[in-house]
Amino acid sequence: MRIAIGSDHTAFAFKSEVAKWLCGAEHEVVDFGAMSMEPVDYCEYGFAVAKSVVGGNFDRGILFCGTGVGIGICANKVRGVRAVTCSEPYSAMLSRAHNDANVLALGARVVGLELAKMIIDVWIKTPFDGGRHAERIRKIQIFEEQNRCVEGYADGKSW
Ligand code: RB5
């Protein structure tokens, strides 16, 4: 699999360890930075990796920051990206099976390296289930393109 990776400074060392492990598992890995522990803004790297995935040069993207939250938010701003921030394998697996997630974001301050590998492993290996889930992805795509819900906006309910 061709995998684009990126991080901010907080996750630079963590990302490097994961990259070595991915290469050892025969994946092709391209690192979009950051390349040191010098403070940077996670946004740049989230956008760069996300764009590279929807651009078609990579099968998936994996991002790292302190929590995985900021960089995951940035990735989700790129049309066509379905990024998931995960700290356990169950959500990682279902983000593939149900949501066809194409970018994974991890928090270097949240998960240990071995847990991260477990999360990534299941996320890489799990295929999209399609079927009823494909219709939901289609609705996300329509919203991205047209900024509208397929069935109109639901009315709010007071509790
Ligand atoms: C950087 O201090 C930190 O805010 C960043 O790594 C990330 O956790 C943001 O969501």
Describe it.
The chain is an alpha/beta fold and 159 residues long. It has one domain (2-146): Ribose 5-phosphate Isomerase B, Chain: A (3-Layer(aba) Sandwich). It has six helices and five strands. It has a five-stranded parallel beta sheet, sandwiched between helices. The radius of gyration is 16 Å and the shape is globular. The structure holds D-ribose (RB5).
Tell me the name of the CATH class: Alpha Beta
Strand order of the largest sheet: 2-1-3-5-4
Tally of discrete structural domains = 1
Largest sheet: 5 strands, parallel
Write the layout of secondary structure elements.
Layout: E1 2-7, H1 12-24, E2 28-31, H2 42-54, E3 60-65, H3 69-75, E4 83-85, H4 89-97, E5 103-107, H5 113-125, H6 132-146
Parallel strand pairs: 1-2, 1-3, 3-5, 4-5
Helix pairs in contact: 2-3, 4-5
The chain binds D-ribose (RB5).
D-ribose binds next to helix 3.
Task: Report a brief summary of the structure.
The chain has 159 residues and is an alpha/beta fold.
Keywords:
159 residues, alpha/beta, Ribose 5-phosphate Isomerase B, Chain: A, 5-stranded parallel beta sheet, 6 helices, 15% strand, binds D-ribose
